Amino acid sequence: MIQNLWRKLNPTGFIFRYYLATFFSGLMFYISVLVPFYTEWGHLSLTQVQILQSWLMIWMFILNIPTGVLADRIGRKISIALGGLSLAASCILYVLIPGFYPFLVAEFLAALGTSFVIGASSALVYEFLKQNNRESESKHILGRSSAISSLGTVIAAPIGSVVAANFGIKAPMLLSAIPLLIASFIILTVHETRIQEKISRPNLLDSIKKGVGFLLKNKNLQYLVFNDILVWIGAYFLVWLYQPMLIKVGLAIVYFGLIRSAFSLAGMIATFNIHLTEKLFRSEKMFINATALIVSASLILVAVLPSVVAVIIAIILIGGFASARTSYLNTTMNELIPTEQRATVLSTTSTVNMLIFAIANPIVGFIADHSLRLAFVGVGLLPLAAFFLLRYSPSLKNKTVLIGESTLLS
User: Fold this and answer.
1) Of 50, 236, 309, 380, which is most buried with the most CB atoms under 10 A?
2) What phi, psi does 201 have (nearest 5°)?
C-alpha cells in the first residue's frame, strides 16, 4: 500500500508536481487587502472597482474558446505556463501604474491568464490519467487540487495583510507574482501525454442555442440555477464589501488576512463532507432553505450592527454554508442534465451566472459608494427571494428531463 501511494504521489511524479504548482498558484497574497489596494493605490471608487470585475468576466467569456483552441495546438502545460506568466504580468502592471485605465489592461491580462489555465488544467490531468489507465481517479485528484489551492489562499491571506501593514498596500500584489512564476516553471517540468484525438469544437452560437433551449424547457433546472445565484450573490459581494466595512469600523489592516482565511477555511470544512453538513439541518429541504436564511440574516446583521464581530460572524457562516449549499445544488443540477448535453448546458448556466454578476457588480458598487450598510441590506434581501419565491424541494431531483422530452433549438 505504501509503495503504491509513493508511486502515485512522489516528488518526481506528475501528480506531485501538479499539486505543487496548484499550491503556488493559490498563494494570492493580495486577496486580503484587494479592495484597499484598488481604492488607496488605484484611487478608485467602489463603483469603478466593480466595473473592473465586470470587465474581467466579459473578457473571460470572450477568451474562453480561443484559449482552449490554442491549448489544443501548443499543449496544455504550455498553456498553463502562459496563463501563469500573464497573471504575474497583471500583478506587476498593477503596482507600476495606478488608475482606472491601466487597471483595465491589468484585468485583461488577468482574464487572459485565467482563461489559459482553466480548461487546460483539468485536460492536462485527465490526459495523464487516461494514458496510465487511472481515469477513475480524476474527480478525486481534481477535488484535492481545489482543496490545495484553497489551502494556499488560507496561508497567503494573513501573510499578505502583514506584508501590507509593514511594507505598503502595493507589496502583497507584487509579491503574488513570484509564486505564479514558480508555478509556471513547475508545470513546464511535468511530462505531458499528448493523446492524438481529433477534437471537434462545437460552433459557439450553436452551443449557446442548445444550452439556452434546454434551460428554457427545463423548469426545474431554471429553478435551481436562479435559487443558487440569488444566495451565492450574497457570498460573492460579502467578499467585496467586508474590507471597506472593516476599514470603516477602524480595524487595522494587519488583521484583514485572518478574517479572509476564516472565509476560505469555513468553506473547506463545510464542503469537505457536504452530507454531514446537510445532516446538521436534519433534511435536504431544510438544509437548502435554512442556509438561504442564514446568508440573508448574516448580511443584514452587518448592516444593522456594523462591527468587527458582525463581519466575522458573516464571514464564517456565509463562507461555510453558502459554499456547501452551492456545491450541493451544482451536484443536483448535474443530475437533471442528460450526459450528452451536460457540458453545453453547464456552460450556458455558467454564462448566465457570469452575465448576472457582470450586471450586478457596478450596481452594488454604486450603492456601496453612497452607503455600505444599504449595500449589505440590498444583497442580503436577494437570498430571501430565494427562500420565499424559489423554495427548494427534494422532489425536483426526481424530475430529470430526457433529451426526447426537451425540444432543443437548432
Assistant:
1) 50
2) -95, 125
